[in-house]
Amino acid sequence: MWKLTKTILVLSLALMAGGAFADEWSPIGIEWGFGWLPQENTNVYGLRLGLMRGNHTVRGVGISVADVSDLFSSERTSVTGVNIALAGSTISTEHFAFLVGGAGDNVQVKSGGIVQICGLGCSATDGFAVSIAPVATLHEGTTGGQIGGVNFSELGGGGVQIGVCNYARGGWSGLQIGLVNYIEGSWILPLVNWRF
Length: 196
What we know:
Elements: H1 2-18, E1 25-31, E2 36-37, E3 43-50, E4 57-67, E5 77-93, E6 96-101, E7 104-109, E8 113-118, E9 121-125, E10 128-140, E11 143-154, E12 158-168, E13 173-183, E14 188-195
Parallel strand pairs: 1-3, 3-4, 4-5, 5-6, 5-7, 6-8, 7-9, 8-10, 9-10, 10-11, 11-12, 12-13
Antiparallel strand pairs: 1-2, 13-14
């Protein structure tokens, strides 16, 4: 446990050193459902703990039951670093994020990239993403890789899909490996399919 604590602390300090500090920020942020410490809109450059929603910017490590900020406001939490949500999260990233979601994650990749591992499904919009989920991974307009039972890719993008069933449309280009592989405007093929 002490090694994990030291690792989180070192990672948080490294991310803090690389980020540009805003006027209002804190090294630790806590949200318990009815309030925030230090306050609602304070950015966190370090460690954020929460139940349902977090601060607008997290550079470091975020741990929560569910990070569903955009259900309560017009802005998603912007994460650079590591975000772990027991149920799942709806966030955005402008740099790089590593996400672990119990049920699923929905991420808007403004720039940079993400790696997400989810218990049920992952969704990424724009940018570069690598998504791993047992039931389904969903990408819209992303470039990267998907590993899952069922993989969907819509609205362009490209990369690699590895799964039982792979589906792509909207100008997607790349390689599919699975039992059933479909690329819009092409054949439905077993084992391998591609369009470049």
